[in-house]
């Protein structure tokens, strides 16, 4: 082959083409410089094209997506620059091809040289084989050196383990410590390094770290679960701290942020109305829900494949999700810690420790939070400290609020309980994560699912309940009230009173008497020393003795007092029930969040025994604890302001009402209240307890907002208060009037008035008289009713006329009390019916209709249990009903409760009517008593003509004047007349029928009787509104017939214009002949005439 000579054509400097080539090179250099300064990571020898591509696609704050157009522009410039260089330097490339042909000739020369070298190597190889023994020895020596180097490298790796572990602990990568220790053991086993004395220190270090690893896992898990914030994180957007929520800009938390920014109760109530609990819980629950339902299965699969050595394709989105916020990072860290515990075969031990330490850790969480709030709200707390508490509490709001519920307490409470409930919800979420991780790690066994969660829940529930009780219930108030109550009241004998005053545990170790010299004490001390080797009760050294005294107290008893963590909590604000108003919204947030945990974050209608645990907790606390303390507060207020009792059992028909009196001016909206004596005659005098009850009752209605909707728990309590008030008045009514039924006090005799009141027919007739008087019924109808009443009161053969004694009459004090009872019940009935408001709306707890399905359960609970919804609404109590109308105070009741309310109103109406009848009957009892005594004890056969009525009639007139004076000053004219109306008819009949008690009478005696009748008539006309209706003609004509001759008398009997009864006519005949025949020594002539007269009467009178 002939050689080919090539010529090279080089461009000349200065030519146009040379200039273009230089420009192309310069352009490429500029592009290179741009890359070097703007994109240095591309030129790095460790650069990875995939990483660069991911960063250019990452549109987060740390990504390079915003520089993607710049990168694409740089790519185009590079392509153009390279293309220009190739185009302009094509001659150089051609010259390179020519150089290739020159290299071929050089290669042939090199092949010749290689042949010579091969020959040389063959000769050298022959010489080497001749020296094989020497080379074998050198090979063994080299192998030993190589093995020694590997051992030294392994030792160096082991010696570096302490530094690696220390750095991992600092970086809070505890889960990687296990891999380092495991690899160290594998390396040592591979090279048998533990046989080397120099490695004894490393071996002991690895053993100690293996033992400490379990403790570190426990500590880290507790740090993560109980939010101790010890792990370094740069993300604060989803940190579960109260301050982060307080400053959060998330729209889902806007209503919560507004709520916790409230500065007073009214603002808090207003913001609470706009609180969207469901939206807030959605935001708080979303991270744990996403992790459990989506990230955890993928994470577990990824970890299992990695442990098996299977090549796993990198899923960058998955890695980003696990690190996207502090919650996801925390859940990922918890998973890795539990995986490490599983590798140590101590997973169940970890879960048991977490369950056992839950209470103490929660206590620490609550204490840390309390200290944070205390340091943050020092100004508000100082204001609370300087509040002067009122020693006298006159209203229910002051008693239940302990007179110290103010805006500073609201600020502290909303931050304290908001933080505690949100943190406890986060703790419960993390326990749920632990539970799900354990379940998925031990797939198919499911050993701890329900049991562990219920154990955790019970402890959280207990701590939160105790925490809330510490802030809403002041037991010292109840104990002080019970101790200060008079022991004479019926309530002192109630079961609740006995339980509260003697409340103590049945058995407590700290109450056990410990005698160090006894044999039992020595045996116990020996057992304790065996179980706890460090326990020492001997006090051999001063330091130990000091510690013993601090722990055991002066009794030096080994018994430990019962631990009640939250009993030692520092309560920041004064205790009162109104604190629950601020606590309620945050309590509901926790309930809704925990409810979703029990439901496994599924919106399912299936109800399991555990799915209602949180709702049951809420209902139990509100219905048993909260409402129980509400009733205690009402009991205190009821006892102090009204008297009697609200909740405690008492003897039937025994009342403890306070019977102090006040005078009310009902003509004005502003009431004039003053303590008055029983003889006060101005304004309207009623029992003070009734006015106090009105204040108590309206406060209850305003506090529980019973005016708008019927809420069973609140409305029923308010209704029960009213029912107990009515029962107390019913008992007072029975005490005053000795109703005479089988349940009344048997030691007290039944009065004649009570006997009459227990006659249904008489009571019916009397009530018709009262109604007819008000309705202006015609006089003829009224006379019929008067006659019917008089017949029942004075029916013939009635021995009660002679049985009426002084004790049957109401004494002045009792009469006044009956009158005050009438006035009080009338006043109560003037405003009580106005409160009733019937609603057809079902109680929201019981509403299962389709129209209510869209209302969230948590919203129903909030609607059912919110109170003080108008804040601390002041009310100006008045003597009339203007305060009820002005403030629109109502008691909404369902259809089933309206009848109960009507029954209570009916009770007061019965008492009012009964007291009015009692006053009416008592006046007639007085008439019977004095008239009967007059007939029995006055001499009716005087020798001289009488000049005045007998003193019994005078006493009766005085009684009537006193009654009229009292009634006129305290009752309206209509009510007063209901007592007197029909009295004339009754007295006419009484004078006639009562004369049967006369044994003997003469003309002068008859004149005295007529004088008595005339005196009574004049007296009644002086007090009557219409004197013309006072007519005693019937009784006067009756006794005037005493002086008539027999013929005229018979004609009178024949006409009988006054309609005397046959027994009355017979009695008159007896009176006519009484002077002659009463001694039993009358002549037969007189006896015959008397018998003839009786026969005539029998023939003439029907």
From TrEMBL:
Q: Which residues form the Exocyst complex component Sec8 N-terminal domain?
A: 27-168
What's in the keyword line of the UniProt record?
Exocytosis, Protein transport, Transport
Q: Where is this region: Disordered?
A: 1-20
- Domain (Exocyst complex component Sec8 middle helical bundle) spans 325-588
Carries keyword Protein transport? yes
A single GO CC term for this protein reads: exocyst
Domain of life, per the record?
Eukaryota
| Gene Ontology biological process terms, A to Z | Golgi to plasma membrane transport; protein targeting to membrane; protein transport; vesicle docking involved in exocytosis; vesicle tethering involved in exocytosis
Role summary: Component of the exocyst complex involved in the docking of exocytic vesicles with fusion sites on the plasma membrane.
Return the similarity comment. Answer: Belongs to the SEC8 family.
Name recorded for this polypeptide = Exocyst complex component Sec8
- Organism, as annotated: Spathaspora passalidarum (strain NRRL Y-27907 / 11-Y1)
Tell me the lineage of the source organism.
Eukaryota, Fungi, Dikarya, Ascomycota, Saccharomycotina
